Description:
The protein is mainly α. Among the domains are: about 70-145; about 145-220. The protein has helices at about 5-70, 75-85, 90-105, 110-120, 130-145, 150-155, 165-180, 185-195, 200-215. The protein is globular, with a radius of gyration of 33 Å. The chain starts with a helix and ends with a helix.
Amino acid sequence: MSDDSFIREVNEELRQDQAKALWTRYAPLIIGAAVAIVAVTASWVGYEYWTQSRANASGDRFSAALDLAEEGQHDEALAAFEALEADGYGAYPVLARLRAATVLAQKGELDAAVAEFDAVAADSSVPASIRDMARLRAGYIMVDNGTYDDVASRVEVLTADSSSLRHAAREALALAAWREGRAADALTLFEQIVDDDAAPRNTRQRSEVMVELIRGTGTGS
Length: 221
């Protein structure tokens, strides 16, 4: 055997001995880490499945309650929405509150509907976008069932140029002003909608009609 071959064999033996020693020393840590990774992965997959299952179940219940409302079974729909509000998952409890308020309005229980929308709007735990929608819904009910101040107290904050709901809020406020004989205020609000390129076409068309009507009566100056 040559010297080179002998040296290679010795080196190989040394490497094997070192590998065995390292494995003996660190095997528990390596195996433990592997087991931990598997456990965490399994737990995460299980949690994802659990949350998705709960969300799906709440979504199915919400859809069923909507069907009841559309069929005119208002009391049954309200009971379903109230149950979902109590034990639903994710965003469904707050959506159930909004839909329950809508059903109350459909039943003609306008005071109760406005109270529920106001409660959602005042709930700091609810996302801001949903709170704003609740303000707007309450405001629209008050257009025909309250005063200009009732509407303004709910939607005026939404009429700012930075608000995504400004067109609907301005329309509600303008209608309340027109209904109360405040033609100049109504004209200003309707013109803001007409001049806003981002306003939805239907909202702008309605506003154009109202602008022409107010100007035609000569009451908006």
